[in-house]
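Ticket closed. Logging final result for Aldo/keto reductase.
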Amino acid sequence: MQYTSLTKDLSFSRIIQGFWRLDKWQQTPQQTLTFIHQLLELGITTFDHAACYGGFTTEGCFGQALALDKSLREKMTLVSKCGILYPNQELPEIKSHYYDNSYEHIVWSAERSIQQLQCEQLDVLLIHRLSPCADPEQIARAFEILHQAGKVRHFGVSNYTPAKFSMLQSYVKQPLITNQIEISPLHLNAFDDGSLDFLLEKRIKPMAWSPLAGGRLFDKTDKQGIAIATQLLEIGKTKDEDRLDVLALAWLLSHPAHIMPILGSGNIERVRNAADALKITFTEEEWIKVYVASQGFDIP
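Final structure:
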């Protein structure tokens, strides 16, 4: 496994395991614990959560597994996100779908995540999405309180544009260490809208959600997906690799922005495939061929 340094005292595994669908995997706490052990054996140490995942339940599911072997906490890096609210059975007091970036909510959500995950501290807390009417002073105050209390080590954002990132950083004392954004061979926006250029300029490494475009890459009816898959498999012949997911992840990993893909599968074999992607490197020529296949027309 490769690791990427985000700060002097924090590194992420290049492959990150996400737990967005943990509630759908139908695992017992013991089965989840076994999965965690398997991830750690592969060198995958960074685990991505969010308060709202699974109707606000998945952090609790993970925490029940971690409680079976508390010694594993020191071997992992726990990331969570806050700010997205929607009606759910777990928290019936939430009546509508909205964003809450208030001081009170951020502190409450971070403390709830710590309790649900059954850990004493989050390694990283991200604002899941910036509310159009967010008060950056409240976000900064929440970050400061959580940091001073030792409840959160580092902070970052998710789904932020470069302008929004810079705006928030101007208020926050702590460096924002990452931006979790959608990046995949089928979603090229970050390569073209300045998002990755900004992060390269600031020497900040991005986390990539939905790196396989939610399965679209394997959809035999998706025109864009078919074009990308054809090109990836053609390049794969020169690398003795015919696993499409491995090639797609290798393409992302080959970008100089040090993209860190977040996996969404609870299938350990698919995770092992993802780890194999680190063994493959795309040349710039090969990388551009996939980019062209995705956008559907040649570069200038």
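DSSP finds twelve helices and twelve strands in the chain. No further action required.
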